[in-house]
Amino acid sequence: MAAGDLREGRIVIVGASLAGLRAAEALREEGFTGSLTVVGDEPHPPYDRPPLSKQVLLGRATADTTELPMRRDPDAEWLLGVRATGLDLLAKRVLLEDGESLPYDRLLITTGTRARPWPNPVEGALDGVITLRTCDDAAWLAERLAAGPERVLVIGAGFTGSEIASACRELGLNVTVAERGPAPLVGAIGGTLSKLAAVMHRNHGVDLRTGVTVTGLHGDGSFSGAELSDGSRVEADVCVVALGAIRNVEWLAESGLAAGPRGIACDAGCRAFTMYGIVTDDVFVAGDVSRFPHPLFGYQMLSLEHWGNAVEQAEVAAHNMVNPGPLQRPHLAVPTFWSTQFGLNIKSVGVPTYSDHVVIAQGSLEARRLAMVYGYQGRVTAAVTVDMAKSLDYYKRLIETAAPFPPPPGAQDRAIAADVPIPSDVPDPKGLSHGPTVALTGYLPDRRLTVV
C-alpha cells in the first residue's frame, strides 16, 4: 500500500475497551477516512475499569454508569459481544466465533487482560466466589456487599485486592486478606513501602494474613469458608479472588505472532513481532496486552496494566498506522499509575520494580506522607508518593533525564542528601499471590546470574 493510501482502506481493532476506543478516535483525528471496525467480546460499549473497585463497590456509582465518554464519534462499526478466535496473517483476516471473518489492511490488537480465576474450577464455581474485572462482576459484588455479609475474604493483596479490602472497611464489613508475599503491594512498590501498606490495612481493621496461601475454598453450593496453608480456617460468605491478570492472547496461538503469557511483543512503534522476531508492518498492539521495549529501563520489554499507558500507547499506534515510516513515532511515555485505599492516595511514576535501592526523599513513613525515590545502578528509575502527588512531576523529570541516584540535595526537603539508600527489596513475582503490575522480561535487575 503506498504511503498516500494509509489514510484509506480497512482497519480492524480487536478489543473494545479503553485502548481500542482511544485508538479509534485518534485514527479519525489523524485523518483516517477508510472503514473502521471494532470487535469486543463484552456486550457493553467501552467503559472505565478503575471505578469498579472503588466508587461502584461503595455505592457512589453504579456499574452501568462507568461508560467511557467519547471524545469524538469514531464513525466505526461496533461488533460487541463477539469474540475473535483466530488471525490469518497471510490472508489478512480476523476469524470470529460465529464463523465469519473480517478482512483488514491494518489491524490493531487491544484485547487487554482478564482476571486470573481460582485454580480449582469446582471451588471457583461456588456461589459467593468472584473475580473483579468486568462491570458485570462489579455490579454483582456491589450487590453482595450492600447486603451486609458477615465477612469477606480477599485472596491477593495487589492493588485490586487492597482497594476491595479498603471498600469493605469503609462499608463497615469484616474483611480478611490473605497474601502469599510478605506484605500488600510488595510486588508493585517493593518491601520498604509495602510495610506502610501493611500498617494501613491493620490500622483500618483488616484481618491481614501474609506469608500464607489459601489451600481450599469450602461450601455446600454456597461459599462458607477457606483453609489456609498455616492450618487456620476463615469463615466468610463472600470470597474475592484477586490473583492478578491473564493477557488475552489465546486466540493468537496459531497466528505466528510473538504472543505468550506476558503479552504480544511489539517494537517501540507498537508494531507486532512475529514469532521469529520479525516486525510486521500491518499489525499493531496497544494497552495491557502489549510488551514493548523502553529505553529508560534498559530496553526491558514492559507489560503495563496502567490506564495512562493504554491511552498513550493507543494514540501512538493510531498515529503510526496512518503515517509512513519516517513520520512514525515511538511510545516513550514514562509509566504512571495511582490508587486510593484506606484514605491514602498512592501515585507512582517510572517502574519501581526496576530498582536496586530506594531512599525516602520527602516526608516519612511515620507521617504517612512521603516521596520514595527508586534507583538502579546509580540512576533514578521511579518514584512513589503517598499523599504527596504534587511532587511527582519533579521526579518524572529526574527519570526522563536519567538523573543520578540518590537524588541530589534540593530534590528533597532535607538540607543534606537524602537518607542512606536501602535495598529496594523487590520480591520475585513467583512468591506473590497477585501478579506483577509491571512485568519485566523475565528477570529482575538485582537477580541476574553471572555464569562463570
Model description:
The protein has about 450 residues and is of the alpha/beta class. The model is unreliable at about 440-450 (pLDDT under 50). It is globular, with a radius of gyration of 22 Å. It folds into three domains: about 5-115 and about 245-325, FAD/NAD(P)-binding domain, CATH 3.50.50.60; about 115-245, 3-Layer(bba) Sandwich (FAD/NAD(P)-binding domain); about 335-430, FAD/NAD-linked reductase, C-terminal dimerisation domain (Enolase-like, domain 1, 2-Layer Sandwich), CATH 3.30.390. The strands form seven sheets. It has a six-stranded mixed β-sheet, with helices on one face. Strands 24-25-28-27-26-29 form a six-stranded antiparallel β-sheet, with helices on both faces. Strands 9-16-10-11-12 form a five-stranded parallel β-sheet, covered by helices on one side. The protein has helices spanning about 20-30, 120-125, 135-145, 160-170, 185-205, 305-320, 390-400, and strands at about 10-15, 35-40, 75-80, 85-90, 95, 100-105, 105-110, 115, 130, 150-155, 175-180, 205-210, 215-220, 220-230, 235, 240, 245, 260, 265, 270-275, 280-285, 290-295, 300-305, 335-340, 345-350, 355-365, 370-375, 380-385, 420-425, 440. Helix 1 runs parallel beside helix 6.
